[in-house]
Amino acid sequence: MEILNDHRRRIVIDDHVWIGRRAIVMPDVKIGFGSVIAAGAILTSNVPEKVVFAGVPARMVRQNVTWSRHVYGFSEGELAAFGEKFGANPPVRGGHGL
Predict the structure, then answer these.
(1) How many other C-beta atoms lie within 10 A of the C-beta of residue 58?
(2) Per-position pLDDT tens, the chain of length 98
(3) What is the domain range of residue 76?
């Protein structure tokens, strides 16, 4: 998803991203696939794939994470999305991000 504002500055949010409540994303920031932005974080820099960013200003607190909306692991759609993005190494079924 891509959002453009009046001044042609961009915020780019890849697929399967979780942004916590009251998090602020500043202009010209890209959030990578599968990342998590903590509640209340102020994001001022680009976020790589599969990481957790938290704090004010936000910084990386954990790497190589996965998350799911399902209590009992990943849905078939989530596994397919990871397979398309990362090839033959999808996350382990039943694994949780944090």
Answers:
(1) 23
(2) 666 555 678 899 999 899 999 999 999 999 999 999 999 999 999 999 999 999 999 999 999 988 877 656 677 777 777 777 666 555 554 444 44
(3) 69-98
